[in-house]
Amino acid sequence: MTRVFSNPLRLVQMVLLALLVAGLILPAFASRSMIQDLFFILTMLTLAQLWNLIAGFGGMVSVGQQAFVGIGAYAMFAGVILLNWDPVPAILLGGIAALVLAIPMAFFAFRLQGAYFAIGTWVIAEVTRLIVAQWKTLGGGTGTSLPREATSDIIGVQMVADLFGLREAAARDVLAFWLALVLVLGTIAAIHALLRSRTGLALAAVRDNDNAAQSVGVDARAVKWAVFLTAATLTGLVGALIYLQTARISPDAAFSVTNWTAYVIFIVVIGGVGRLEGPIVGVMVFWALQTAFADYGAWYLLALGLIAIAVMLFAPRGLWGLITAKTGLVLFPVQRKLTIEGNNDG
Amino acid sequence: MLETRGLTASYGQFKALFGIDMTIAAGECIAIIGANGAGKTTLLRSISGVLSNSPEMILHNGVPIGALPADAILKRGIAMVPEGRKLFPSLSVEENLLIGGQVRQGDRRWNLETVYELFPILRERRLSPGTALSGGQQQMVAIGRALMSNPELLLCDEISLGLAPVVIRDIYAALPEIRKTRAAVVIVEQDIARALTVADRVYCLMEGRVTLHARAAGLERAAIHAAYFGAGE
Amino acid sequence: MIWLDTIVQGLLLGGLYALFAAGLSLVFGIMRLVNLAHGDLIVFAAFLILVVVDTTGLNPFVSALIAAPALFAAGWALQRFVLNRVLGQDILPHLLVTFGLSVALQNGMLEVFSADSQRLRSGALESASIDLGPVTVGIMPLLTFASAVLVIFALNRIFYATPLGRAFRATSDDPVTASLMGINPKSVFAIATGLAMVTVTIAALYLGMRSNFEPSIGPARLIYAFEAVIIGGVGSLWGTLAGGAIIGVAQTIGAQLNPEWQILAGHLAFLAVLLVRPRGLFPRAVD
After folding, report:
1. pLDDT per position as a tens digit, A157-196
2. pLDDT at residue B35, rounded to an integer
3. How many whole angstroms from its chain centre is CA C224?
4. Which of A48, A64, B5, B203 has its CA 20 to 30 A from that of C222?
5. Secondary structure element (H or E) that encloses residue C201, with its range
6. Alpha helix locations (H) across B49-151?
7. Distance (Å, rounded) from C-alpha C15 to C-alpha C249?
């Protein structure tokens, strides 16, 4: 394995910072549609990194993350419509709501193992969707939109509009893009730091062998809870942000298994499960496919499903796995190497 | 009948056998002795197909079988009594026996009736779950189960392990009956004295190599000691 | 009287859910794995029966009989050529492959059959009913329940009274030692999946006769099946029947209170059982 530089953590942080700065300047040059595409890529990337964290690194294969996307989005809408909050701070409500939902979800789901855990998370996501669909003030089963007054006056939008000479709608897209950039870079930095920490090591141990990990003093439950809850909160923030940009919500859309779980899983699988670089590669491929073929509807989804199967059968480490195997390249070193100091004999 | 030529085996990076040459003729009883970790179980797992090797490393009646999986090996008439008995917890004693003869029945000399005659206690406990029996009784079930396929070659991996001496005596008393049916038997044993009482020939393994190969009759204690532990200890 | 009627309807509905769950329970009992495409396979089977009905003009029952061997073969092949390749310590590959299969199946069916609702017509049987004293029950639900009981009885017989069942149990206990007995675990798994597909065919028959179906309803069937298995207790086929009944009754009671609450009521019953009895009501001995 070739290391890019000698202090990986510092390097990663510097690169992320550089990307952040680049992102701040980008709207000056980029078209509106490019900003929108980037928003899509960055939000999907964040969701993918979070799913990869709990499933790839944590061994908790959830098929219910759409619950957090949905509840996060709905909490934000509730904050705007019912509490008259500005949509941007209301995003935080999304994170909080997701965290609150994650507690019972983890409580029930952790009673199940393996594939049953997966379906259990799906059930709870469904329950959440069904309950939210009963919430008449937020549109019930058909959904609702963010009111005009709320979207026309979002904090920061005017400043952006003035800064880059944009109309209000485009400025909103830029603001959303910046928030997505902060979220994705923050998420990647946090996951990277986590994996390099003792908790990250504990997580790997728990994933490989729960009982063995506990027998050496790892508090498996605490580690799993912490990681699951954190991932849920961040997923909720992403959900709220996505629907801030869309400004229109419905239970079927916000809790969609296809958009928030199937696509996310596809991104991680294609890119490479269990590696930070995987989702980055995966989201590029996914975006390219989406742009080229989404119009083909069911054929496109059928193809995605078959590709996912083929990748798991023939290249289970994904595209990044193939790249790493060929070149030894690692962008986010998290592997630990055992070095033995001392004598050269014996 | 069975021959190994330069048999090597590894577990990942760890090499366990370094070129074992061994022959077993029809109807013979071979003992394989050696300390823990010498490679005895690895050798049996290779022959029985649990471990995969190069085809020509193991020959059965001249046919290369080294790479065949365990189920194919059983169909050829090579049955194993695995280390630790490994009875099926979900099956009763009788079902454990039946499953031994499910895929291959051979000449049917060994069947439920004759196995119960060999080990009468099992008939009394036939409906108990396999794992509810004492260690010695479980060993009887494991042996009976292997016999049900009427094998040409019976591989016995540490059948006396963890058992009381009187129980071991009862189990070994069954061996002559088994040999009457012309099956060859390989016993892997830590109890050297016991092994020598039934074996025609002995191989001793140490660290994956054969350090002694001799007829059991008249084998000197010193020779065994040297082979088992290594010379100059 | 309304409540007695509701409960009876719920029990009979439970028969359908038990049919959904039987295959899932069988495969999990042997392989410790769940096929996330299980529900979609039920829908696929329903479409296949429909194709047979349309091409031959035979009634759904006979058509299902014709479709069953094909579906057995499909399940066998799926396990033998695809799923057996992703068995191992890590459950992630298997989960992801079956998830991909679910997505592929749903959308494949969508393209081939369109999103239109379909139905397996059974003529007079659809609305026939029988008077059982205090309640009147439809013949179809009664038939469904009876079939569920029969299927579970048959599966139990296979499991505990046949050489094949011995092989299933032995392989489930210890695949390596099973191979020492001459059993090929991969073949056993393939047969198990094939057998599961036969139960799926029966489930599809009753699903299609009872109500409309279309390509996207698979996941919901998977969830009901899964809930029935968990409530009943992993490893117990009769428990699965009980689990199905509980979901059915919860749903009908929920629907009686408010039609919009039907599905939710079933899920809540599941969560309630999971809360107090994580191992289910009739769990088998330790794994």
Report:
1. 888 888 888 888 888 888 999 999 999 999 998 998 888 8
2. 83
3. 9
4. A48
5. helix C185-210
6. 70-75, 93-100, 112-118, 120-124, 135-147
7. 11
Residue spans of alpha helices (H) in C114-184: 139-161, 163-173, 175-180
Of C126, C150, C153, the residue nearest C138 (C-alpha): C126
Side-chain half-sphere CA neighbours of C141 within 13 A: 18
Selection from C186, C177, C277 nearest residue C236 by Cα: C277
Concatenate the DSSP letters of all residues of A28-88 into one string: GTS-HHHHHHHHHHHHHHHHHHHHIIIIIIT----S-THHHHHHHHHHHHHHHHHH---HH
d(CA A3, CA A10): 13
pLDDT value, residue B233: 42
Show residues of chain A in contact with C28, CB under 8 Å: 115
Phi first, then psi, for residue B59 (nearest 5°) are -120, 130
The residue among A127, A28, A305 whose CA lies nearest residue C266 is A127
Residues in C touching A59 (Cβ below 8 Å): 92
User: B135: how many CB neighbours lie within 10 A of its CB?
Assistant: 13
Distances (CA, A) of B125 to B92, B122, B128, B175: 9, 5, 5, 22
Q: What is the number of CB-based contacts under 8 A between chain B and chain C? A: 66
**Cα distance between residue A317 and residue A313, in whole Å:** 10
Residue type at C282? F
Q: Is C188 on the interface with B (CB under 8 A)?
A: no
pLDDT digits (tens, 9 = 90+) for B10-53: 888 888 898 889 999 988 999 998 888 888 999 999 999 999 98
The dihedrals phi and psi of A154, each to the nearest 5 degrees, come to -70, 140
Length of chain B: 233
Tell me whether residues C180 and B104 touch, CB distance under 8 A. Answer: no
Cβ contacts (< 8 Å) between B41 and chain C: which residues? none
pTM for this model (two decimals): 0.89
Q: Does residue B198 sit at the C interface (CB-CB below 8 Å)?
A: no
Q: Do chains A and B touch (3 or more CB pairs under 8 A)?
A: no
Contact between residue A268 and residue A51 where contact means Cβ atoms under 8 Å apart: yes
C280 three-class SS: coil
* Residue matched to tokens 């009664």: C142
Dihedral angle sign, alpha carbons of residues A200, A202, A203, A208: positive
Number of H helices, E strands in chain B: 9, 10
Chains with 3+ CB–CB pairs under 8 A to B are C
Neighbours of C91 (CB within 10 A): 20
